[in-house]
UniProtKB/TrEMBL annotation:
Highest taxon in the source lineage: Bacteria
Annotated ranges, domain NADH:flavin oxidoreductase/NADH oxidase N-terminal: 5-341
Keyword Oxidoreductase attached: yes
One Pfam short name: Oxidored_FMN
Coiled-coil residue windows: none
Species, as recorded: Jeotgalibacillus marinus
PANTHER family registered for this protein in UniProt: BINDING OXIDOREDUCTASE, PUTATIVE (AFU_ORTHOLOGUE AFUA_2G08260)-RELATED
Key words of the record: Flavoprotein, Oxidoreductase
UniProt keyword Zinc present: no
UniProt-recorded name of the protein: NADH:flavin oxidoreductase/NADH oxidase family protein
InterPro entries for this protein: Aldolase_TIM (IPR013785), NADH_flavin_oxidoreductase (IPR051799), OxRdtase_FMN_N (IPR001155)
């Protein structure tokens, strides 16, 4: 009997997804100096498409060249980039693959050496040790907010024109939309702040603008935190409320995640017993969400076995199995599962055993980014690549910049 993981799913707008595998965004950092896609990106996404995943979401694409999340982000803001996007879309949609561009603005979560200034809902810096990596942000003006909303819509229209089959709005992980949603970051007293209705207004208006520029049949997904794991931050109750409003607006699919760059769910660290049993980090939240919304869901983070994936879909906790790091090591994982070649993925938390370095460096992100780079160069991944060699390679390539944090998703 065919696994439920390979059962077709049809979105409300009629878009057919060939299976239940959903590649969550991972940072590629493979753009050229002009912030355009490269052959490495084309090859990487062709590899994912050939690997059998139904929906492939790109790493975050920025809507403004003055607001990069990290070095070598792709930026989509005018038609000059269309020839590059067309090549990306052509290679990434083979094998009946849905290729969705993730659109993002970093807000204050932009490293000092890649932007001249940072904006945020309120002029509040990141707390604790993370603050040293980022500018003290200034409060974004209402005029600038409206401009960014139009930029999101324009970038989505360009993605559609180039042949991408959908987009995802990045509303999680501490970036600008996530900052607007969180009361710990957004302390405005105008229409863009105060209560949850005001704090989610930016996200809602971004969605409406994208919908108006792309039409009713173009899939639009939102990546939303279940919570941002900060004191007095965006809560589960608020996330459920926002999800309900997104469903009413007509969002086609919601991807559930959590945390921020300073506090992401990390494999092997602080994992609840229920998560170990069910694998995925946010399934418990997804089940709560199912009681109030009926929109298609993808839960990303933690899946490691075919059995766990099937169980999550069978139980109706999620419609799609969100995978990120497993696909950096096994880009053809859906094919391997379908052919009964692989039933379980074993990924370890990357550390050197030197406390001062392990606590300061995002060794996991560094290691997986290097695997993506290898795939982009047409090379095989190295599942057993030693972490200490990965660290030395990053140090030789990037110097002291290696001690900056990198986003995981």
């Amino acid at each position: 009997m065919e696994s439920i993981l390979f059962k077709e799913f049809t979105l409300q707008n009629g878009t057919k997804i060939k299976n239940r595998f959903f590649k969550g965004a991972m940072s590629e950092a493979l753009a050229n100096v002009h912030l355009q896609p490269t052959e490495s990106i084309y090859r990487l996404y062709e590899t994912f498409a050939k690997g059998g995943t139904g929906i492939v979401v790109t790493g975050n694409v920025m809507i403004d060249s003055k607001a990069l999340g990290e070095p070598r982000n792709v930026v989509v803001e005018n038609e000059e980039i269309l020839p590059f996007l067309e090549k990306w879309a052509e290679r990434g949609t083979i094998n009946n693959t849905q290729l969705w561009m993730q659109l993002n603005h970093p807000g204050k979560q932009a490293f000092k050496d890649v932007v001249n200034e940072a904006v945020a809902p309120s002029a509040i810096p990141f707390p604790g040790a993370s603050s040293r990596f980022f500018h003290h942000p200034r409060e974004i003006t209402p005029t600038e907010i409206v401009d960014l909303i139009h930029r999101f819509g324009n970038s989505a229209k360009l993605a559609q024109k180039a042949g991408f089959t959908g987009v995802q709005i990045h509303g999680a992980h501490g970036y600008l939309i996530s900052q607007f949603l969180s009361p710990s970051h957004n302390q405005r007293n105008d229409e863009w702040g105060r209560d949850i209705d005001g704090r989610m207004k930016f996200l809602i208006e971004v969605y409406r603008e994208i919908r108006s520029q792309t039409g009713p049949l173009f899939p639009i997904s939102v990546k939303l935190n279940s919570a941002d794991f900060m004191k007095a931050g965006f809560s589960e109750e608020e996330a459920i409320y926002v999800a309900g409003q997104l469903e009413k607006e007509g969002v086609d699919l919601l991807e559930i995640s959590g945390g921020s760059i300073a506090n992401l769910a990390t494999p092997g660290k602080d994992v609840k017993a229920s998560t170990n049993v069910r694998e995925a980090y946010f399934l418990d939240f997804a089940e709560k969400l199912r009681k109030t919304v009926d929109m298609p869901l993808s839960v990303t983070g933690g899946f490691r076995t075919k059995k766990g994936m099937e169980s999550a879909v069978h139980s109706n906790a999620t419609d799609f199995v969100g995978l990120a790091r497993p696909l950096a090591v096994y880009p053809d994982l859906p094919n391997l599962i379908e052919e009964n070649i692989l039933q379980e993925i074993i990924l370890t938390h990357k550390k050197l055993g030197i406390k001062s370095i392990d606590n300061q460096l995002p060794l996991d992100s560094m290691w997986y980014t290097q695997q993506l780079d290898r795939l982009g160069r047409g090379k095989q991944v190295r599942p057993n690549h030693p972490v200490w060699i990965s660290f030395l390679q990053a140090l030789l390539k990037n110097g002291k910049e290696v001690f900056q944090q990198r986003r995981a998703k």
